[in-house]
Amino acid sequence: MTKPRFYLTTAIAYPNGRPHMGHAYEAIASDVIARFKRLDGHEVRFLTGTDEHGLKIDQAARAAGMAPKAYVDQMVAPFQALDAALGISFDRFIRTTDADHKALVQALWQRMAANDDLYLGRYEGWYSVRDEAFYDEAELVTADDGARLSPQGTPVEWTVEESWFFRLSAYQDRLLALYDSQPDFIQPASRFNEMRAFVAGGLSDLSVSRTSFAWGIPVPGDERHVMYVWLDALANYLTGAGGLDGEWWPAALHIVGKDVVRFHTVYWPAFLMSAGLALPKTVFGHGFLLNRGEKMSKSLGNVVDPAEMAQRFGVDRLRWFLCREVAFGEDGSYSDEAIVERTNADLANGIGNLAQRSLAMVAKNLGGVMPVWGEAGETELRLKQAFHAGAEAYFAAMNSLALHRALDAVMAMVTAANGYFAENAPWALAKSGDTTRMAEVLAATLDATRRIVLLAQPFMPGSTSLLLDQLGVAADARDFNGFNTPVAAGTQLPAPAGVFPRITLDG
Ligand code: MSP
Fold first, then answer.
1. pLDDT tens digits for 26-47?
2. Which residue, judged by its Cα, is nearest atom 29 of ligand 1?
3. What is the pLDDT of residue 177?
4. What's the rounded mean pLDDT across residues 204-224?
5. What confidence tens digit (pLDDT) does each residue in 427-459 have?
6. Which numbered atom of ligand 1 lies nearest the CA of 236?
């Protein structure tokens, strides 16, 4: 039987500085979804990478006194190191300076030109280098000191140059029809409404080439021009799919931050329509991560190195915290205190405690041999019901990308399992010599733990793998097909060892 395919992507980061927690957050959330889909029977392709052309990178390279290619070559390393530190299971790390990407973008341009959607004109208007975006006069805001700023609060400059234009204005009706016929194209719903209103307000043609600098992909047939960096960057998703007729296209899911939703849900589908290509199924715009409620910025001095955070707290604690604490789609905040508090409560006291207490009793009282199930009594039935509801809530949440709700469901299962264990007090049964009943309670608790750990795998791949070893779950019995299959009685379990020790602020 062939598995259904699932192609997902992150935004590709500008390597003009070091990666920050926002990059880590997007990579982690996307990786959780990729791992979930694999466990849930999909063949997954997961693409991430870096966006290396354009004026912003050109200027940063100049400031560093380097040629742009040499500059990005050294700047990309920390992004790749971060992915490794966070356990990001991508299939390809694309760089827009890769040769196959350059060829793809030029072929895409030719398709759009063949559709008569590109024409030569003269751009006169506002441009933000920081956002790499053009803005209409009406979109600008005025700062206290009178300076004109983009809606994102970045400086804009008046730009006049010859430029190729894309007939974006011709796509207004088709875009509105897309949104109305495919309401899950833009998620969450708040971003859908914002983008629909933007398009309904009218679209101007888009300048898609520049002549005032050379760091980009040349326009085929008019090499004085380099392509607009967003056209180049968005096309990475096609390159990563295997090309214009790539076997992985269309993407099931683009995960991007809220600030770049417009590029992905207005420009990108219009480019694809122009080239006669299928459209991605969903663009999900996640929220922004704030440091103690404040925007991360160099001037505030609150930029932390996410690889260092993963090192300090343990990568799985960081992954768990970010997915549990931030409602996926909304802004969220992190602080060292919150990470310590949350992971001690959920992981040390919750999942870790459940696993350690039951595994330690099996080791001590039953020689580490997986016990035999008993007849289900009232407490077992209640546990079963709680787990049935929990698993259902988990899958519904994961399938609608409500990652935080999925973890709520996992924690409800942890509470039910810890409640079952406390209520049946197997340590008292051991003391009173009722070994049979004690073994039954331990069998039910270990199986509840197995189910919890299976569902937690996308969020904490390393620690769950260690726990599943201890629970005697074979390596080929860890996907969701095996969810309802307990470990066979009589299986010899390895000696238990704590996986989630409590942590303190000073490590
Ligand atoms: N290069 C473009 C994306 C091109 S996609 C074809 C870009 N790069 S970026 O480095 O500025 O941002 C990369 C991703 O990180 C974007 O999805 C962006 O929204 C996200 N984030 C940047 N800062 C963020 C936070 N503070 N919090 C969460 N995500 C943030 O945009």
1. 999 999 999 999 999 999 999 9
2. 22
3. 98
4. 97
5. 999 999 999 999 999 999 999 999 999 999 999
6. 6
Percentage with pLDDT > 90 across the chain: 94
Cβ of residue 234 lying under 6 Å from some atom of ligand 1? yes
Structural domain boundaries, residue 371: 336-482
The answer to whether 448 and 424 have CB atoms below 8 angstroms apart is no
Rg for the chain, CA atoms, rounded: 26
Mean pLDDT of 270-282: 98
CATH number, domain containing residue 403: 1.10.730.10
29-39 as b/e: b if 16+ CB within 10 A = bbbbbbbbbbb
Is the backbone of residue 42 left (phi > 0), alpha (psi -120 to 50) or beta? beta
Residues 197 and 55 in one domain: yes
Q: What pLDDT is attached to residue 297?
A: 73
DSSP H helices in 335-425? 336-343, 353-366, 378-399, 403-424
Judge if 399 and 271 occupy the same domain.
Answer: no
Residue that is written with structure tokens 């803005």 in the block: 135
Regarding the beta carbon of 315 and ligand 1, being less than 6 Å apart is answered: no
Residue to probe by mutation, ligand 1, list 95, 154, 288, 322, most atoms within 8 Å of CB: 288
| Ligand 1 pocket residue status of 57, Cβ below 6 Å | no
Is the residue at 505 inside a domain?
no
In one letter, which amino acid is 64? A
Q: Are residues 372 and 453 in the same domain?
A: yes
**Is residue 368 in a domain?**
yes
**C-alpha span between 212 and 226 (Å, rounded):** 9
Answer yes or no: do 65 and 199 share one domain: yes
**Cβ 14 under 6 angstroms from ligand 1:** yes
Q: Three-state DSSP class for 96?
A: coil
Report the domain count for the chain: 2
Q: Which atom of ligand 1 is nearest to the CA of 233?
A: 6
